[in-house]
Amino acid sequence: MAxxxxxxxxxxxxxxxxxxxxxxxAIEKDSVVGLIGTNGAGKTTFINMITGYLKPDRxxxxxxxxxxxxxxxxxxxRIGICRSFQIPQLYASLTAFENMMIGIGVVLRNAGRGxxxxxxxxxxxxxxxxxxxxxxxxxxxxxxxxxRDRNAQVLPGGVxxxxxxxxxxxxxxxxxxxxxxxxGVSAEEKFEIMEMIMQAVRAEGITVLFVEHDMExxxxxxxxxxxxxxxxxxxxxxxxxxxxxxxxxxxVIGGELRRLDEARAGxxx
Amino acid sequence: MSTxxxxxxxxxxxxxLLAFGQWLPQWxxxxxxxxxxxxxxxxxxMILLRCGLVSFGQALYYCIGAYAAGLLGRLFGLSDxxxxxxxxxxxxxxxxxxxxxxxxxxxxxxxGLLSLALSMILYGLLVKTEALGSSDGFHVLRTTLLxxxxxxxxxxxxxxxxxxxxxxxAALLVHRYxxxxxxxxxPAIKDNEIRVEYMGASARHAIHVKYVIAAALAGLGGALAxxxxxxxxxxxxxxxxxxxxxFIAILAGTGSVxxxxxxxxxxxxxxxxxxxxxxxxxQMVLGSALLVVIVFLPNGLWSLFRRRxxx
Lengths: 269, 311
Prior knowledge:
The structure holds two protein chains of two kinds.
Chain A: E1 3-14, E2 17-28, E3 32-36, H1 43-50, E4 58-63, E5 66-67, H2 73-78, E6 81-83, H3 96-110, E7 123-124, E8 129-130, H4 131-141, H5 157-169, E9 175-179, H6 187-204, E10 207-211, H7 215-221, E11 224-229, E12 232-237, H8 239-242, H9 246-268
Chain B: H1 6-20, H2 26-50, H3 59-76, H4 81-103, H5 108-128, E1 138-139, H6 152-178, H7 181-191, H8 193-198, H9 203-229, E2 231-232, H10 239-252, H11 259-277, H12 282-296, H13 302-310
Antiparallel strand pairs in B: 1-2
């Protein structure tokens, strides 16, 4: 299958810390790829490099055959790569609906619609519906209709996460990068949220890369796993193979278990 | 969906000013025209405030507009109020376009102080420029309206009419702009610029555009003030002038394009009455008025109308 994203030889250092060291990964179209690794392993750096937030020191990134290494985040978004954040990045003083409308407004503007001289209600590209209808349909799809008119800053954690992801869909991405979509969400909600995301994504035919610490979530939803350790990819395989790899067990899953133990010990203390 | 009443309200205010302005006393005409001029500057300030940017130096463009208008008269003998307003607007917009590349990179206090510094540089330059009258400034030619020189009793009304037409047009255009995706981006920029970028828009570009629009409005206001007062001086770029605009903006609130004009009018009335009643302590009266508004109407005078609507 054709690669939608191709990262070759990515290096990134922050002073003495190596955040990416010779990262090579080709992501196939319509696939769902899980990125695993302990904190500081280089997962978010990888996402930040793809989306133009960080420039790699060396190496190139190609998306649909086009070199996107030097593009700014807004340009990366415009060509079809969207991302969500570990900590939801919302417009706190606006309602969920207004948050959506801001995003749709940007999409309209980038398509040359809804400007100063336009009349009537322009149709949102890709949806062929007016902005309000698109906002409501996406909120509906993520089960957020009941929170439509509530301010983003007062929404519960899981809802904020979903809204953060729903916002990425307004631009009709072809590649979606989800940074820890289930972090800060209760164990019971995790699968529900992932299920909802995957349903929305499958309906749109979007390729997904998601960062995840919960190995159960990874093995259930990812078709392929990239395991990061110390800025390198130490395993690149199907979940069943990758998660039983000795190096992954030692450096990633072991690390995750230690992290869980520490978290539990911290809670008890 | 609620209907948009702003255009109709603006139209009614304009019609009222044009119809009844001729019967108003001369000093009132002056007060209202200056309120319209300052309201235009505050309208621009409002666009920036919605993005969370407080310009402490909007007097820079007010002064540029005024001097552009004054110089057109001095160098080319132009005195048509519309031409002068257009020139003031263009000069300020041009300056803001250039300076915007620098200013649009800064936020919060850095943006505020940098804009203040730029206005004080202009003040310093004007004070030292003898050709422009140094600290005394110079007189502006007597106003004409589309080639007609109104008779003495009609000059103030003619300028008021031109000001009202310009202010209504500006308010309608800004109202329209605020409804476009770029205009609506303001609270998003204020809340979360990272998300704005990741949605595919450039916050810096949006701020640059807003900065130029705000400056153009300030230049228009400056040119109007110059033709109304008939005299310009470097004080127009001084930081206290910028402070006055922020004062009016807080007094008015950012709820509507009509609010800045209402705020400027209330400011003018309080200032005039306070100066009349107590010439040595009029600033104290003005300060107290602002304090009362901040305590009881934190969203400015405009919230009075919004509350009534909500009720």
